[in-house]
Write a structure and sequence with these properties.
CATH topology of one domain in chain A: Beta Polymerase, domain 2
Number of strands of chain A: 7
Number of strands of chain B: 5
Helix content of chain A: 10-25%
Strand order of the largest sheet of chain B: 2-1-3-4-5
Bound molecules: iron/sulfur cluster
Order of helices and strands of chain A: HEEHEEEEHE
Structural class of chain B: alpha/beta
Order of helices and strands of chain B: HHHEHEEHEHEH
Radius of gyration of chain A: 17 Å
Helix content of chain B: 25-40%
Number of helices of chain A: 3
Distance between the termini of chain A: 53 Å
Largest sheet of chain A: 5 strands, mixed
Radius of gyration of chain B: 21 Å
Strand order of the largest sheet of chain A: 1-2-5-4-3
Structural class of chain A: alpha/beta
Largest interface: A-B, 15 and 12 residues
Oligomer: heterodimer
CATH architecture of one domain in chain A: 2-Layer Sandwich
CATH class of one domain in chain A: Alpha Beta
Shape of chain A: elongated
CATH superfamily of one domain in chain A: NADH:ubiquinone oxidoreductase Nqo5 subunit
Distance between the termini of chain B: 45 Å
Strand content of chain B: 5-15%
Shape of chain B: elongated
Chain lengths: 158, 167
C-alpha cells in the first residue's frame, strides 16, 4: 500500500498534519491533526478539486481518549474521487475550526454536530441548535447523556 | 269508511310509515356528522405514505364520506396525527388541536403517534395522548390501509353513538 497523492501533497505543505492513513476496498482515509484541518482542507480543495463536502459528522468513542472524532467526506464532482478525513478531539478541548469559508453547507452540518455532540466550531457565524429546541440542555448523542433523560416542552416528563 | 272513523290514529300511522322515519335528533346529527368528516392530516413521518395510499382511489376514503382534507384546522372535524411526534413539534400539535372548532375528533395513526413506536428516546413524545385527547388509535408500523379504514369505521361508530352538542 503506497501513500496516495493527497497524502503526499498535504505532508509536503504541512509536515505534521497527517497522523495516520489507511485504505480499504478503495475507501481512502486520512487521520489528521485537528488544529490543522483548515490547511488540510485548503490543499484538498485547491490542489485536488474536492469541491463538495458530502458529509460532516462526529463520533463519540467514550471512554477512549481522545474522545471525539470528526469525520469529513469529500467528493471531487468531476473525477468522482472521494476522500475521508478524520480528526480526533479531546473532551477538554472539544472545538475545531469551521469549514464554512470553504463549503457553505458546513453551516448546517456544523450546527447539527454542535446540537447533538456539543463540538464548538471556531469561526462559525451562527452556531446554534438546528434539530432540537433552544430550551434543550446538553447534547443527546454524547454517550454520557442519560438514555432515559427527557426534556419535553410540554406534557409529562416521562 | 266506517273503519276510518273508528280508528283515525291507526290509519295515520299506516299511511305515514312508508314516507316518514322517526328518530332521535341526536342520532340524526350523528349520522350527518359521521358522513361529512373534514379531515386535517397532521403528517410527520413514514406513516404518511400509508395514509396517502388509503386516501387515494385504490382504497378511497371518499366512500366513507371522509375524503376532504382541510389544511386549516378551523374547518376540520377530525385531525389525523400520522407519524412520529417529536417534543419540538408537540406544542404545534396542541395549538392546532385547540384551533379546531367543536365538534372535533382525534385519530392517532400508527405506533409512533399512539405510544412513541420504536423511538423511546430524548426526542420523541411517548404517545400523543399525553398532549391531546385521542378518540381512535390505529395500530401498526405503519398500519395497512385496511386497518386505517377499520379505524375510520370505528370513529364513525363512535360519532354515531355519542351525545351531540348542537345549540
Ligand atoms: S409507526 Fe412506523 S411507519 Fe409509522 S411513523 Fe412510526 S416508524 Fe414510521
Amino acid at each position: 500500500m503506497s501513500k496516495f497523492p493527497e497524502h503526499i501533497a498535504i505532508e509536503k505543505a504541512n509536515p505534521t498534519a497527517v497522523l495516520d492513513w489507511h485504505e480499504r476496498f478503495g475507501d481512502r482515509t486520512l487521520i489528521v491533526e485537528a488544529k490543522q484541518i483548515v490547511e488540510v482542507v485548503r490543499t484538498l480543495k485547491d490542489a485536488f478539486g474536492y469541491d463538495m463536502l458530502v458529509d460532516l459528522t462526529c463520533v463519540d468513542y467514550l471512554p477512549r481518549r481522545p474522545r471525539f472524532e470528526m469525520v469529513y467526506h469529500f467528493l471531487n464532482v468531476e473525477s468522482k474521487a472521494r476522500l475521508r478525513v478524520k480528526a480526533q478531539l479531546e473532551e477538554s478541548h472539544a472545538r475545531v475550526a469551521s469549514l464554512m469559508e470553504f463549503y457553505p453547507i458546513a453551516d448546517w452540518f456544523e450546527r447539527e454536530v454542535w446540537d447533538l455532540f456539543g463540538i464548538k466550531f471556531e469561526g462559525h457565524t451562527n452556531l446554534k441548535r438546528i434539530m432540537l429546541y433552544e430550551e434543550f440542555e446538553g447534547h443527546p448523542l454524547r454517550k454520557d447523556y442519560p438514555k432515559t433523560k427527557r426534556q419535553p416542552l410540554m406534557g409529562p416528563q416521562n | 269508511m266506517s273503519e276510518l272513523i273508528q280508528s283515525p290514529t291507526m290509519d295515520m300511522t299506516r299511511s305515514l310509515s312508508s314516507n316518514v322515519m322517526t328518530t332521535r335528533f341526536d342520532k340524526l346529527l350523528g349520522w350527518a356528522r359521521k358522513y361529512s368528516l373534514f379531515q386535517y392530516p397532521f403528517v410527520t413521518a413514514c406513516c404518511g405514505m400509508e395514509f396517502m395510499s388509503t386516501a387515494c382511489s385504490h382504497y378511497d376514503l371518499d366512500r366513507f364520506g371522509a375524503a376532504f382534507p382541510r389544511f386549516s384546522p378551523r374547518q376540520a372535524d377530525v385531525i389525523w396525527v400520522v407519524g412520529t411526534i417529536s417534543h419540538k413539534i408537540a406544542p404545534v400539535l396542541k395549538t392546532i388541536y385547540e384551533q379546531m372548532a367543536d365538534p372535533k375528533w382525534v385519530v392517532s395513526f400508527g405506533a409512533c403517534a399512539s405510544c412513541g413506536g420504536p423511538y423511546d428516546n430524548y426526542a420523541t413524545v411517548q404517545g400523543i395522548d399525553t398532549i391531546i385527547p385521542v378518540d381512535v388509535y390505529i395500530a401498526g408500523c405503519p398500519p395497512r390501509p385496511e386497518a386505517v379504514l377499520d379505524g375510520l369505521l370505528k370513529l364513525q361508530e363512535l360519532i354515531q353513538n355519542q351525545k351531540h352538542e348542537w345549540k
